[in-house]
Design goal:
The protein has 281 residues and is α/β, with parallel strands linked by helices. It has helices at residues 19-30, 46-55, 68-74, 80-85, 105-116, 133-143, 157-167, 226-233, 243-258, 265-275, and strands at 5-11, 34-40, 60-63, 77-78, 90-93, 99-102, 125-129, 149-153, 174-176, 186-191, 209-217, 238-240. The protein folds into 2 domains: 5-103, Rossmann fold (3-Layer(aba) Sandwich), CATH 3.40.50.10860; 106-243, Rossmann fold (3-Layer(aba) Sandwich). Helix 1 (19-30) links the parallel strand 1 and strand 2 (34-40). The structure holds NADPH dihydro-nicotinamide-adenine-dinucleotide phosphate.
Length: 281
Protein backbone atom coordinates (compact mmCIF):
# COMPACT_ATOMS: atom_id res chain seq x y z
CA UNK A 1 0.00 0.00 0.00
CA UNK A 2 1.28 3.51 -0.87
CA UNK A 3 2.60 5.51 2.10
CA UNK A 4 0.26 8.28 3.22
CA UNK A 5 1.47 11.88 3.44
CA UNK A 6 1.70 12.95 7.07
CA UNK A 7 0.19 16.08 8.66
CA UNK A 8 -0.39 17.02 12.29
CA UNK A 9 -1.54 19.66 14.73
CA UNK A 10 0.80 20.66 17.57
CA UNK A 11 -0.38 22.48 20.69
CA UNK A 12 -0.89 22.25 24.43
CA UNK A 13 -3.45 21.22 25.55
CA UNK A 14 -4.34 19.24 22.42
CA UNK A 15 -6.40 16.27 23.64
CA UNK A 16 -9.76 17.81 22.69
CA UNK A 17 -8.66 19.14 19.29
CA UNK A 18 -11.25 18.63 16.55
CA UNK A 19 -8.64 19.10 13.79
CA UNK A 20 -7.82 15.38 13.24
CA UNK A 21 -11.53 14.62 12.72
CA UNK A 22 -11.94 17.62 10.38
CA UNK A 23 -8.96 16.69 8.22
CA UNK A 24 -9.95 13.02 8.17
CA UNK A 25 -13.37 14.05 6.83
CA UNK A 26 -11.76 16.37 4.26
CA UNK A 27 -9.40 13.57 3.14
CA UNK A 28 -12.24 11.04 2.75
CA UNK A 29 -14.37 13.53 0.86
CA UNK A 30 -11.60 14.53 -1.58
CA UNK A 31 -10.01 11.06 -1.70
CA UNK A 32 -6.61 12.29 -0.59
CA UNK A 33 -4.24 9.71 0.90
CA UNK A 34 -3.06 11.40 4.06
CA UNK A 35 -2.94 10.94 7.82
CA UNK A 36 -3.39 13.77 10.33
CA UNK A 37 -2.61 13.38 14.01
CA UNK A 38 -2.64 15.61 17.11
CA UNK A 39 0.47 15.89 19.26
CA UNK A 40 0.92 17.51 22.65
CA UNK A 41 3.82 19.97 22.18
CA UNK A 42 4.72 22.65 24.71
CA UNK A 43 6.47 25.93 23.87
CA UNK A 44 9.73 24.50 25.26
CA UNK A 45 9.62 21.49 22.88
CA UNK A 46 8.27 23.40 19.88
CA UNK A 47 11.40 23.83 17.78
CA UNK A 48 12.80 20.32 18.16
CA UNK A 49 9.35 18.79 17.57
CA UNK A 50 8.80 20.72 14.34
CA UNK A 51 12.31 20.02 13.05
CA UNK A 52 11.89 16.28 13.80
CA UNK A 53 8.44 16.18 12.16
CA UNK A 54 9.66 17.62 8.86
CA UNK A 55 12.96 15.68 8.96
CA UNK A 56 10.90 12.47 9.11
CA UNK A 57 8.97 13.43 5.97
CA UNK A 58 5.99 15.33 7.44
CA UNK A 59 4.31 17.50 4.78
CA UNK A 60 2.50 20.14 6.84
CA UNK A 61 1.60 21.25 10.34
CA UNK A 62 -1.06 23.21 12.11
CA UNK A 63 0.01 25.07 15.25
CA UNK A 64 -2.44 26.11 17.91
CA UNK A 65 -2.30 27.61 21.40
CA UNK A 66 0.32 28.52 22.67
CA UNK A 67 2.53 27.96 19.61
CA UNK A 68 1.30 30.37 16.91
CA UNK A 69 3.82 33.15 17.65
CA UNK A 70 6.65 30.61 17.87
CA UNK A 71 5.61 29.15 14.52
CA UNK A 72 5.68 32.66 13.02
CA UNK A 73 9.22 33.18 14.30
CA UNK A 74 10.27 29.68 13.15
CA UNK A 75 9.07 29.82 9.52
CA UNK A 76 11.73 30.46 6.85
CA UNK A 77 9.27 32.64 4.98
CA UNK A 78 5.79 33.90 5.72
CA UNK A 79 2.74 35.16 3.83
CA UNK A 80 1.50 38.73 4.13
CA UNK A 81 -1.45 37.68 6.29
CA UNK A 82 0.90 35.81 8.65
CA UNK A 83 3.11 38.90 8.91
CA UNK A 84 0.14 41.09 9.77
CA UNK A 85 -1.07 38.75 12.47
CA UNK A 86 2.46 37.92 13.69
CA UNK A 87 1.13 34.41 14.16
CA UNK A 88 1.24 31.26 12.05
CA UNK A 89 -1.28 28.41 12.28
CA UNK A 90 -0.15 26.53 9.14
CA UNK A 91 3.34 25.38 8.17
CA UNK A 92 4.03 23.97 4.72
CA UNK A 93 7.24 22.35 3.51
CA UNK A 94 8.22 23.61 0.09
CA UNK A 95 10.07 21.88 -2.77
CA UNK A 96 13.35 23.52 -1.69
CA UNK A 97 12.74 22.28 1.92
CA UNK A 98 12.13 25.77 3.24
CA UNK A 99 9.15 26.07 5.61
CA UNK A 100 6.42 28.53 4.66
CA UNK A 101 4.23 29.94 7.43
CA UNK A 102 0.67 31.15 6.81
CA UNK A 103 -2.28 32.22 8.92
CA UNK A 104 -5.70 31.00 7.77
CA UNK A 105 -7.73 32.15 10.82
CA UNK A 106 -8.88 35.51 9.41
CA UNK A 107 -9.90 33.97 6.10
CA UNK A 108 -11.76 31.23 8.02
CA UNK A 109 -13.81 33.79 9.96
CA UNK A 110 -14.69 35.87 6.89
CA UNK A 111 -15.77 32.77 4.93
CA UNK A 112 -17.94 31.56 7.80
CA UNK A 113 -19.60 34.97 8.22
CA UNK A 114 -20.09 35.88 4.57
CA UNK A 115 -20.50 32.52 2.80
CA UNK A 116 -21.94 30.15 5.40
CA UNK A 117 -24.12 32.76 7.12
CA UNK A 118 -24.65 35.14 4.21
CA UNK A 119 -23.79 38.23 6.26
CA UNK A 120 -22.85 41.48 4.51
CA UNK A 121 -20.00 43.12 6.44
CA UNK A 122 -19.87 46.15 4.16
CA UNK A 123 -21.88 48.98 5.72
CA UNK A 124 -22.15 47.11 9.06
CA UNK A 125 -21.20 48.68 12.36
CA UNK A 126 -18.84 46.07 13.81
CA UNK A 127 -17.46 45.73 17.34
CA UNK A 128 -14.58 43.37 18.13
CA UNK A 129 -14.03 42.49 21.79
CA UNK A 130 -10.45 41.51 22.71
CA UNK A 131 -7.03 42.48 21.43
CA UNK A 132 -5.01 39.27 21.59
CA UNK A 133 -3.53 37.00 18.91
CA UNK A 134 -6.85 36.00 17.32
CA UNK A 135 -7.88 39.63 17.04
CA UNK A 136 -4.63 40.47 15.20
CA UNK A 137 -5.47 37.77 12.64
CA UNK A 138 -8.98 39.03 11.85
CA UNK A 139 -8.49 42.82 11.78
CA UNK A 140 -7.09 43.26 8.26
CA UNK A 141 -9.58 40.84 6.59
CA UNK A 142 -12.48 42.62 8.31
CA UNK A 143 -11.24 46.07 7.32
CA UNK A 144 -10.84 44.84 3.74
CA UNK A 145 -14.63 44.25 3.75
CA UNK A 146 -15.09 48.06 4.24
CA UNK A 147 -17.41 48.07 7.27
CA UNK A 148 -19.30 51.29 8.03
CA UNK A 149 -17.61 51.41 11.45
CA UNK A 150 -15.10 49.22 13.28
CA UNK A 151 -14.46 49.53 17.01
CA UNK A 152 -12.02 47.41 18.97
CA UNK A 153 -12.62 47.21 22.74
CA UNK A 154 -10.38 45.44 25.18
CA UNK A 155 -10.16 44.95 28.96
CA UNK A 156 -6.64 46.42 28.80
CA UNK A 157 -7.51 49.52 26.82
CA UNK A 158 -3.93 50.32 25.76
CA UNK A 159 -3.70 47.10 23.74
CA UNK A 160 -6.85 48.03 21.79
CA UNK A 161 -5.49 51.54 21.12
CA UNK A 162 -2.13 50.14 19.97
CA UNK A 163 -3.73 47.62 17.60
CA UNK A 164 -6.07 50.28 16.20
CA UNK A 165 -3.09 52.56 15.53
CA UNK A 166 -1.23 49.72 13.81
CA UNK A 167 -4.12 48.60 11.58
CA UNK A 168 -5.58 52.02 10.66
CA UNK A 169 -3.70 51.83 7.35
CA UNK A 170 -6.34 49.28 6.26
CA UNK A 171 -9.33 51.45 7.16
CA UNK A 172 -11.01 53.41 9.96
CA UNK A 173 -10.77 51.71 13.33
CA UNK A 174 -11.11 52.98 16.91
CA UNK A 175 -9.56 51.31 19.96
CA UNK A 176 -11.14 51.73 23.42
CA UNK A 177 -11.97 50.11 26.75
CA UNK A 178 -15.29 48.39 27.55
CA UNK A 179 -16.57 51.40 29.53
CA UNK A 180 -16.23 53.62 26.43
CA UNK A 181 -18.88 51.57 24.60
CA UNK A 182 -21.69 53.23 26.55
CA UNK A 183 -24.26 54.82 24.21
CA UNK A 184 -22.96 52.94 21.14
CA UNK A 185 -24.74 50.18 19.21
CA UNK A 186 -23.41 47.60 16.73
CA UNK A 187 -24.89 45.36 14.02
CA UNK A 188 -22.25 42.66 14.53
CA UNK A 189 -20.36 41.95 17.76
CA UNK A 190 -17.42 39.55 17.51
CA UNK A 191 -16.03 38.14 20.74
CA UNK A 192 -12.29 37.58 20.25
CA UNK A 193 -11.51 37.41 23.97
CA UNK A 194 -10.75 34.11 25.65
CA UNK A 195 -13.35 34.82 28.40
CA UNK A 196 -15.73 32.17 27.02
CA UNK A 197 -13.13 29.45 27.59
CA UNK A 198 -13.66 30.03 31.34
CA UNK A 199 -17.43 30.44 30.75
CA UNK A 200 -17.10 34.09 31.83
CA UNK A 201 -19.31 36.83 30.47
CA UNK A 202 -17.94 40.28 29.63
CA UNK A 203 -19.30 43.47 31.21
CA UNK A 204 -21.45 44.54 28.24
CA UNK A 205 -24.37 46.96 28.38
CA UNK A 206 -27.80 45.57 27.48
CA UNK A 207 -28.38 47.85 24.47
CA UNK A 208 -24.99 47.22 22.80
CA UNK A 209 -26.45 45.05 20.00
CA UNK A 210 -28.76 46.60 17.40
CA UNK A 211 -32.14 44.82 17.56
CA UNK A 212 -31.82 41.90 15.15
CA UNK A 213 -28.02 42.17 15.11
CA UNK A 214 -25.53 39.29 15.04
CA UNK A 215 -23.23 37.91 17.76
CA UNK A 216 -20.22 35.75 16.88
CA UNK A 217 -17.93 34.11 19.44
CA UNK A 218 -14.58 32.87 18.10
CA UNK A 219 -14.60 30.34 20.94
CA UNK A 220 -16.60 27.12 20.60
CA UNK A 221 -17.38 24.14 22.75
CA UNK A 222 -19.79 21.30 23.28
CA UNK A 223 -22.47 23.71 24.50
CA UNK A 224 -23.30 27.36 23.73
CA UNK A 225 -20.62 29.70 25.10
CA UNK A 226 -21.40 32.46 27.61
CA UNK A 227 -21.23 35.05 24.81
CA UNK A 228 -23.50 33.02 22.50
CA UNK A 229 -26.00 32.81 25.38
CA UNK A 230 -25.68 36.59 25.90
CA UNK A 231 -26.54 37.10 22.23
CA UNK A 232 -29.64 34.92 22.53
CA UNK A 233 -30.71 36.79 25.68
CA UNK A 234 -30.26 40.12 23.85
CA UNK A 235 -32.42 39.18 20.85
CA UNK A 236 -29.66 38.56 18.32
CA UNK A 237 -30.96 37.41 14.95
CA UNK A 238 -28.14 34.88 15.00
CA UNK A 239 -25.78 34.06 17.86
CA UNK A 240 -22.94 31.94 16.49
CA UNK A 241 -19.88 30.25 17.87
CA UNK A 242 -16.49 29.68 16.19
CA UNK A 243 -16.98 26.09 15.00
CA UNK A 244 -17.59 27.27 11.43
CA UNK A 245 -14.45 29.41 11.56
CA UNK A 246 -12.48 26.41 12.82
CA UNK A 247 -13.62 24.26 9.88
CA UNK A 248 -13.06 27.07 7.35
CA UNK A 249 -9.52 27.83 8.55
CA UNK A 250 -8.82 24.08 8.33
CA UNK A 251 -10.20 23.96 4.78
CA UNK A 252 -7.87 26.78 3.76
CA UNK A 253 -4.88 24.93 5.29
CA UNK A 254 -5.96 21.73 3.50
CA UNK A 255 -6.07 23.67 0.23
CA UNK A 256 -2.57 25.07 0.84
CA UNK A 257 -1.22 21.58 1.45
CA UNK A 258 -3.15 19.56 -1.19
CA UNK A 259 -4.31 22.14 -3.79
CA UNK A 260 -7.80 20.69 -3.36
CA UNK A 261 -10.62 22.64 -1.73
CA UNK A 262 -12.91 20.45 0.40
CA UNK A 263 -16.59 21.20 0.93
CA UNK A 264 -17.04 22.49 4.46
CA UNK A 265 -20.80 22.25 5.02
CA UNK A 266 -20.92 18.45 5.44
CA UNK A 267 -18.04 18.67 7.92
CA UNK A 268 -19.65 21.48 9.95
CA UNK A 269 -22.90 19.46 9.95
CA UNK A 270 -21.06 16.34 11.16
CA UNK A 271 -19.33 18.23 14.01
CA UNK A 272 -22.59 19.88 15.05
CA UNK A 273 -24.30 16.48 15.06
CA UNK A 274 -21.50 15.04 17.22
CA UNK A 275 -21.82 17.77 19.85
CA UNK A 276 -25.60 17.66 19.73
CA UNK A 277 -26.28 21.32 19.03
CA UNK A 278 -25.94 23.61 16.03
CA UNK A 279 -23.46 26.48 16.16
CA UNK A 280 -26.33 28.79 15.30
CA UNK A 281 -28.69 29.44 18.18
P1 LIG B 1 -5.07 35.69 23.69
O1 LIG B 1 -4.66 35.06 24.96
O2 LIG B 1 -4.03 36.14 22.72
O3 LIG B 1 -5.97 37.00 24.01
C1 LIG B 1 -6.96 36.94 24.96
C2 LIG B 1 -7.82 38.21 24.92
O4 LIG B 1 -8.96 37.97 25.76
C3 LIG B 1 -7.13 39.47 25.43
O5 LIG B 1 -7.62 40.56 24.69
C4 LIG B 1 -7.62 39.52 26.89
O6 LIG B 1 -7.68 40.83 27.42
C5 LIG B 1 -9.02 39.00 26.75
N1 LIG B 1 -9.60 38.40 27.95
C6 LIG B 1 -9.26 37.20 28.51
N2 LIG B 1 -10.03 36.96 29.58
C7 LIG B 1 -10.87 38.03 29.70
C8 LIG B 1 -11.89 38.35 30.62
N3 LIG B 1 -12.22 37.55 31.64
N4 LIG B 1 -12.56 39.53 30.46
C9 LIG B 1 -12.23 40.35 29.43
N5 LIG B 1 -11.27 40.10 28.54
C10 LIG B 1 -10.59 38.94 28.66
O7 LIG B 1 -6.09 34.65 23.03
P2 LIG B 1 -6.38 34.46 21.48
O8 LIG B 1 -6.54 35.81 20.88
O9 LIG B 1 -5.39 33.53 20.88
O10 LIG B 1 -7.79 33.67 21.48
C11 LIG B 1 -9.00 34.35 21.76
C12 LIG B 1 -10.18 33.39 21.53
O11 LIG B 1 -10.30 33.07 20.13
C13 LIG B 1 -10.06 32.05 22.25
O12 LIG B 1 -11.35 31.75 22.79
C14 LIG B 1 -9.71 31.06 21.15
O13 LIG B 1 -10.17 29.75 21.43
C15 LIG B 1 -10.49 31.67 19.98
N6 LIG B 1 -9.99 31.25 18.66
C16 LIG B 1 -10.84 30.56 17.83
C17 LIG B 1 -10.43 30.16 16.56
C18 LIG B 1 -11.38 29.40 15.69
O14 LIG B 1 -10.95 28.83 14.68
N7 LIG B 1 -12.67 29.39 16.00
C19 LIG B 1 -9.08 30.48 16.05
C20 LIG B 1 -8.27 31.26 16.99
C21 LIG B 1 -8.73 31.61 18.25
P3 LIG B 1 -6.36 41.55 28.08
O15 LIG B 1 -5.56 42.06 26.93
O16 LIG B 1 -6.95 42.62 28.92
O17 LIG B 1 -5.67 40.48 28.87
Amino acid sequence: MAKKDRYAVFGSPIKHSKSPRIHQLFAEQTQQALEYTAKEVTSERFKESVVAFFAKGGRGLNCTLPLKELAWAFADLTTKRAELSRAVNTLIIQDDDRILGDNTDGCGLITDLTVNHDLALTKSRILILGAGGACRGILAPILECSPHQLVLANRTQQKASDLAAEFCIFGDIDGCGFADLKGQQFDLIINATSASLADEMLPLQDDLLTPGGICYDLAYGNRPTAFVRWGVEHNAKKSLDGLGMLVEQAAEAFFLWRSVRPQTKPVIDALNAARNFVSEV
